Amino acid sequence: MATLDLKKISKSFGEAKVLHDIDLAIRDKEFVVFVGPSGCGKSTLLRIIAGLEEATEGAIIIGGDDVSKAHPVERGISMVFQSYALYPHLSVYENIAFPLRVQKMEAQELDARVQKAAGILQLTEKLQLKPGQLSGGQRQRVAIGRSIVREPSVFLFDEPLSNLDAALRGDMRVELSQLHRNLDATMVYVTHDQIEAMTMADRIVVLNGGRVEQFGTPMELYHHPQTKFVAGFIGQPNMNFVPATISQVAASGVSVDLDCGGSLTLPVEPGSAAAGDRVEVGIRPEDISTGEGINLNVTVLERLGGVTISYGTLNDGTRFCAALDGVATAKEGEPVGITVDPAACHLFDASGSVLRRKNAPVLAS
Amino acid sequence: MANTATKSQKIRRSLPEAWFAWALITPAVIFIGVIVAWPLFETFRLSFTDARLGGENYVGLENYAELADSRKFQQTIVRTFYWMFLSVSLKLVLGLIGATLLNAAVPGRALFRVLVMPPWVIPMAIGMIGWLWLYNGAFGVLSGTAQHFGIIDKAFEFLAYKQSAFYSAVVADVWVGTPMVTLFFLAAMQGVSRDLYEAAWVDGAGRWYRFRRITIPQIMPVIVSMALLSAIFTFNSFEIIWILTEGGPRNATTTLIIDTYKTAIGNFKFGEGAARAVVIVVLLAVFSLIYLFFLNKVNKHYGVK
Questions:
Q1: Test mutation, B195, B196, B203, chain A, max A CBs within 10 A
Q2: Tens digit of pLDDT for each residue in B253-270?
Q3: ipTM of model
Q4: Domain A4-232 maps to which CATH number in 3.40.50.300, 3.40.30.10, 3.30.1490.20, 3.40.640.10?
């Protein structure tokens, strides 16, 4: 059992407070991804879990034991670094065996464990090479191999794929997901790439400015972002935010007048919203289709075949992006009529909090 | 555009590339010829003569035969290598310890880094005069302190006895040579990625284990290069011994370079001195070759790109 609980973790470097009362409960065998823009504190939080940094306040509880002051080995964690941190003077074999050598493990058992790890990671052929002779992806695997031989209960990954090229990153995502299934261990993974988060995570922690914005499954985050920040961060291309004013509040939904012209009635819980409030309507590019209603003045078109990503501005000057049909007739420099299903829209009040959608797709999780 | 092209073609025709290349390296060739090659050749030529103040006659291999038969000269060679190995080993060990301490995260370490410099920075002669006073029996601090604590019962003249003079000279040489080694090692240590230490620490490696299995291998190429440099400096170290003991007492601190100086400059036996200089060149060349071969292996082993 390796649950990982963070209780009111705060961290300050001198005057600068980088983490504010982080509370998280990570379940056993869960793959959790910390995602956020650079400087949001995600790496610091991971280093605190690893024991490389000490939290200013709060407690870390792994498998029910308070390990806030414990050494990483006692915590039962292992970590994969962004730079891989391989020892260039040691062979792949010795790199993987390093944590076991530290423990002075008996030779036979050590060899068995290294061979097993090499087998899992397809490194058996490479054991006698030096890291310098390996490709980026192979080095990455050696770093993972070093972390699995110790059989820790929690794996920590600090942006492990950011040094790889795009194609390899895609392959490694799949490999890491498989590894998680094979090892059946708790994994915490830090990245700034929301695609990595969406594809691999059981649950995602979105961090912003040292605070947890939202903690949930990828589909929860996608369909029910609690804040404008999460809505804008998750999803590719990014969500559009269209300024509007509430014209009418009813039990069935909220009607808004868009600044760019036109009006929508969104089926959301009105909460404390009142007519006259300034709001923003969040519209995902993929929920838009050509039609009548809103004018998009296209400036750039990216034709990807299946879809046409159209960048431009609305009539009031708001920047807007729409993922239209692959064969859409839009032309650069010309306006195109678009339409959106009000049920797919998100509504954010002036503070950036969402008004919960009523008919979002039901999640099978 | 076309105009420039024809112009440059014209220049190329009038000044072939080979000429231009020669023009570039000629100053360096002349410089090396005058400063290095000619003296080397001249030394080599002199070593086959009995050159002295009065003139010179060709004597063939006589000077070398004399050296080969001289037990004193053989002892000098052995002493020189012993001096070199002892001094270089101490410099490397102390340099490693010093660099490790200076690399530690302690408050005010910038100040300590400056404080190791003086032995290297102050003029050698002044430093050595300081050591002369330290080693002085009647007035020296070392002798005085030792007497005060009852370690010795009467004044001890460090430079007056064969063994103590030799080891005193080694200490002074180490004092001069350690700061440079320390700073080079420190620079190398600072180049070792922090991630490696963090990764090892997370895996449970202790301080000593990390030093042994990360720091040392990572800076090994620097240690090896530094050892070679330091060995050559120490082998040829002249001022320190000359100021402290002039090679005495009874040749106890006479290294090859001191012997050569005494013969050639002190006794005006230029021919014999030149033969000694040639022996030094040959010994150092062989030593360096073996060393460079070894260095290459080390670099390969430690995965230097």
A1: B203
A2: 888 889 889 888 888 888
A3: 0.81
A4: 3.40.50.300
